[in-house]
Amino acid sequence: MIKPPAIKSLFQICFKLRAPPPSHHHHYTTTRRWRRRRFVGMARNEWINGYLEAILDVGANLKTQKGVDAKMKLEKLQDNVKRDKHFSPTNYFVEEVVNSVDEADLHRTWIKVIATRNTLERSNRLENMCWRIWHLTRKKKQIALDDAQRLAKHRLEREKGRHDAAEDLSELSEGEKEKGEAQPVDKISRINSEMQIWSDENKSRQLYIVLISIHGLVRGENMELGRDSDTGGQVKYVVELAKALADMEGVVRVDLLTRQISCVDIDYGYGEPIEMLSCPPEGSGNCGAYIVRIPCGPRDKYIFKESLWPYIPEFVDGALSHVVNMARALGEQFDGGKPIWPYVIHGHYADAGEVAARLSGSLNVPMVLTGHSLGRNKFEQLLKQGRLSKEDINSTYKIMRRIEGEELALDAAEMVVTSTRQEIEEQWGLYDGFDVKLERKLRVRRRRGVSCLGRYMPRMVVIPPGMDFSYVKTEDSAEGDGDLASIIGPDRAQNKRAVPPIWSEIMRFFTNPHKPMILALSRPDPKKNVTTLLKAFGECKPLRRLANLTLILGNRDDIEDMPSSSSAVLTTVLKLIDMYDLYGQVAYPKHHKQVEVPEIYRLATKTKGVFINPALVEPFGLTIIEASAYGLPVVATKNGGPVDILKALNNGLLVDPHDQKAIEEALLKLVSDKNLWGECRKHGLKNIHRFSWPEHCRNYLSHLEHCRNRHPTTRQKIIPIYEEPMSESLRGVEDLSLRFSVDGDFKSNGDVDPATRQKDLVETFTRMSASNKKSNTSYSPGRRQSLYIIATDSYDTNGDSTETLSIIIKNVMESAIEKPGQIGFILLTGLSLQETREALKRCQVNPDNFDALVCSSGSELYYPWRDLLVDEDYDNHTEYRWPQENVRSTIMRIARLEHEDDDNMAEQMKTSSSRCYTYIIKPGAKTRRVDDLRQRLRMRGFRCNTVFTHAAKRLNVIPLFASRAQAIRYLSIMWGMDLAKMFVFVGEKGDTDYEDLLVGLHKTVILKGSVEHGSEKLLRSEESFKKEDMVPPENSNIVISTGYEVHDINAALETLGRN
Asked: Any bridge partners for residue 957, and if so which?
């Protein structure tokens, strides 16, 4: 049983539940007397006795079961009461009862207690409180159980996928075995042997680089870092990266694309379309670096990143227009009119990663990804805390939508830039689209010239984040400059040297500003773990005697006006300062400017202080590098980037961010041992050059050049559209399209060599030219004022086409009858070309009435005015990472659910093609949804799209960069057509790619009643993200018509602003 002193402490705790908190510390004695009197008056209350009985009984069990742990908890509880600390019943219940008590014991004891009490004497409050604790405990255990089961199932499926891939890749030919003897598989490091370091020899290059960072407030000067959770270190990183890349030899222009925001609550500068970041030296021939702001979502509203997802396609379309125009402009200036396409499109974070993937697919240029922080990692951490269910996490953070964005970026990325090896193995290793072992195996096979059988994994590279050292003054790097006497000592009045304003702002908090300063600088985010640091400082008396603590937690005016998470952190900080009575020892200024951050580091250095980053997980650790550049020793979290940073700098200590005692000891060690402090400072200053921006950019461009060797190397060339009569517009129609030049090397994974591909393209252009001469049509897609795009596949319950499609085609064409030749028509369909021709024949519509037929869910593009020849350019465009025959049998195996018959799904050869494999689902058969199929394909290294069509009776497997939405973007570039002049007609439901057709800059008309049976039931599972995460709730570009008659269509078009 628990000893009497512990019982007494528990009684005191129970009385504190009823006792009012003291209004001032001077009333401490009075309050204690009140509590003693209250104890005598309440001793007979049965509810107290019953509740104590329940807790004491469980406490006894704890002591029996856990021994020392239970004793330590009880002793700590007694100690807290003796010191009369503010006791929080909520914290006690959650931390002690919910986390430690077996809910069955508590429930059993509670039942026993209330059963022995008189009903009239029982307290409803007690019963409700006990029930809530019991219910909360059960809920937490259920969340933990569900999470464990989900993770186990996911791990099992991953292992199965990896096993399938390993089996397929394990069989080596005789030639492969011979090569394998010459180069063992385990010597992976030799793969990089051919990578050339970027040097001044590349100054003749003309590289256009596009960086993308959508969320937050991005500007070049006086960045508002810490203003909110979206405006943090990533903003500073991308801005400085853009400036540094623009200074590299061979780079002609760097564009940093972000969201344009014109909101009264923020500075007007964020609404400026273009901002120059760096001006190149005169005569250099370079253009410099720019922030380009793309309109996206509500123009007058600042949107946090969790709510930006539905507007991603709109940003993609706006960015696409900018990049195409810039490519033309740069080509006119530097390359005789030949467009200079981006050397790379680099997405930062999940949202920009998805944008970069879409742009890469539209422009066929390499894409690079930097995750910064990862959704799966955050998801797992939140689940482990047990406070929120999976559904709550998903609704709050849109975490599943974020994860899908990251997976899509992995599908398209040539290279993923990470800051640490831990990020690769422990964070990216959680994703379906990446596996360390499989990536190494595929890399070895490519190195040997062996086919990868259609499988692909992006290359992960570790490039430490850079820093701008231009702000670091020479004196900051000098040894022994730590004496503040000349600045804040008695003779400071005679000192002519001006003290930076931020120094005075910080010093005013301190009773003794001469003590070493422990500096923490971050935004007020729970995951930055500032409260644990404050507790460690408050509870360590030796540390409080030796040092002061400075907390730079963003900028604030009124805590109540801040986001809830930031407000909660700052409120807790203030409460902890008050609880530990840290006035005069902790500084927490309300405001600081970005340009003052270097001065803050300098102040900490001059006091011989220490910088600490106690974050739960720190992906980069830029503040650690910054602090080290100013000679500050570092204490940092052992989770994430700081591990590699401190290994390189050797200037500090790593700690477990959850271990308060470890944080105390590390800080005390560096503050008290001046020799150790000096050694850490010396090492940091000596090695800091490894993290300079020039070094970062050299590594970045070198890795990128190496990875680009694996890219398909097709590069678009837009030929100017010449003014010519309408009747002759088809003469030389190849000038209106995109041409591709081939400039790459031999592709060891099965691609043809450049000479063969060049020959094929020449033959293709010859066929196109011959076809153009035979055509006698009198219109040109390049001369349309607008395009009407019909995407209303209508099927019955059996998956057969209905007559509704023909009615819609005729009515849409009739709606444009008043503008002959000015409006073109495109058909987007999940049907094959042969099925499309048959459908048009049945409804007596001439295929020549269409400018383009996009068939097989966007995998094939045909031009009726070219005798229905396939667009070879588009065909080459979409071949990237297409696994071809290698995925055929895999689909059959993974699409079926367990316990389903093998013959419930079969490939339909007559509708399949080289870019689309079609599978028929038999009536009554069940199959996996699109999200599940993508997951299983990614686990096996396959990158492709899956679309259910024909009222969920057919599955089309198509290339990664092929889709109906991407076909629209391709045609907009090819024909120079503004996406805002394209009108897409859809039904109220459709194929599983339906949502992609609703979003973007094009106009959408939803024809009510036109489609009765869709395939949306096979799109996503209940646990995935929702439709509102893909389609904005309010969109002025979408109109729902009352029907699909001509007058209904005309009314909808007038609403959308048809000219």
From this structure: 917, 946
DSSP labels for 406-455?
Answer: HHHHHHH-SEEEES-HHIIIIIGGGSTT--HHHHHHHHHHHHHT---TT-
CA-based nearest residue to 949, from 835, 806, 830, 853: 830
| Percentage, residues of the chain above pLDDT 70 | 73
Q: Is the dihedral of CA 977, 980, 981, 987 positive or negative?
A: positive
pLDDT in tens, 841-891: 988 899 999 999 999 999 999 999 888 888 888 988 888 899 989 999 899
Which tokens belong to 781?
Answer: 């897609």
pLDDT of residue 35: 43
Contacts of 419 (CB under 8 A, 6+ apart): 462, 463, 464, 465, 619, 620, 621, 640, 641, 644
Tens of pLDDT, residues 959-997: 999 999 999 999 999 888 899 999 999 999 999 999 999
User: 265, exposed or middle or buried, with CB in 10 Å at 0-12, 13-18, 19+?
Assistant: exposed
**CA-to-CA dists, residue 862 to 619, 677, 1044, angstroms:** 46, 70, 26
Alpha-carbon distance of 210 to 356, in angstroms, equals: 9
pLDDT at 782 over 70: no
- Phi/psi at 256 (5° precision): -105, 110
**Angstrom distance (rounded) from CA 226 to CA 240:** 17
User: What span, in angstroms and rounded, lies between the C-alpha atoms of 59 and 74?
Assistant: 9
d(CA 761, CA 742): 9
Residue 1038 phi, psi dihedral angles, 5° rounding: -120, 130
Residue 614 near residue 655, CB atoms below 8 Å: yes
Please state the rounded mean pLDDT for residues 27-41: 42
243 vs 386: CA distance, rounded Å: 43
DSSP character at residue 961? T
Task: Summarize the confidence of residues 77-92 as an average pLDDT.
Answer: 47
Whether residue 809 contacts residue 831, with contact meaning beta carbons closer than 8 Å, is answered with no
Q: Which two tokens stand for residue 92?
A: 């006690």
Q: How far, in Å, CA of 264 to CA of 282, rounded?
A: 37
Looking at per-residue pLDDT, the higher value among 795 and 94 belongs to 795
> What CA–CA distance (Å, rounded) separates 672 from 651?
16
427 pLDDT exceeds 60? yes
CA angle, residues 695, 701, 706, in degrees to nearest 5: 130
Of 992, 1004, 993, 990, the C-alpha closest to 1032 is 1004
As a whole number of angstroms, the distance between CA 956 and CA 936 comes to 16
Residue 1007 parent element (H or E): strand 1003-1007
End-to-end CA gap in the chain:
86
Of the candidates 512, 559, 596, 729, which has an alpha carbon nearest to the alpha carbon of residue 224? 596
The C-alpha atoms of residue 603 and residue 500 are separated, in whole angstroms, by 9
How buried is 168 (Cβ within 10 angstroms: 0-12 exposed, 13-18 middle, 19+ buried)? middle
- Between 373 and 200, the more confident residue is 373
239 near 231, Cβ under 8 Å? no
**Closest of 868, 188, 306, 278 to residue 564, by C-alpha:** 306
Q: Which of 371-385, 687-701, 765-779 has the highest mean pLDDT?
A: 687-701
**Band of residue 244 on the pLDDT scale cut at 50, 70, 90:** very high
Higher pLDDT, 867 or 122: 867
Question: Do strands 548-552 and 517-521 pair parallel, antiparallel, or not at all (unpaired)?
Answer: parallel
In single-letter form, the type of residue at position 448 comes to R
**Which residues 6+ apart lie within 8 Å of 42 measured at CB?**
15, 18, 48
Full-model pTM: 0.74
Residue 11 exposure: Cα atoms within 13 Å on the Cβ side = 17
Residue with more model confidence, 99 or 146: 146
